[in-house]
Design goal:
The chain has 134 residues and is α+β, with helices and mostly antiparallel strands. It has helices at 12-17, 60-76, 78-96, 99-104, 107-115, 121-124, and strands spanning 20-24, 27-33, 45-48, 51-54. A four-stranded mixed β-sheet has the order 1-2-4-3, with helices on one face.
Amino acid sequence: IHTEDGGRIFGRRLRYYIRCVKKLHYSTMKIIYNRLIPVGKRYYAINLFGVLFAKGPCNRTIITHEKIHTAQMKELGYLFFYLAYVVEWLIRVIQYRGLHKGYLNISFEKEAYCNQSDSGYPGRRRHYSFVSYY
């Protein structure tokens, strides 16, 4: 960000943390780039209440994946979505005997992973589509 005389008010760090609002042909999603969220080396991006937090640039596949989660959140309500997500994750961790395997087998994640390569899917998906992935 620059002042009228060309001087910098904020440095690269601010631009790194909050870069832009990405506009796709079917809607917008706020993306915040940062090094803190999501926690852990295995995860690159996380959707919290419809805002995408990412460790770096996001391609269309990642954005589509997270837009599917946003649709799921809106259908169930944000708090109930997170409650259902955590409960199902705990069940899948026990069922598949692993944290990451449990994560990959959550119905919300299955729907998102199966359809993330189709950028038009969030605009035409049926309500509660994740139910068919149980």
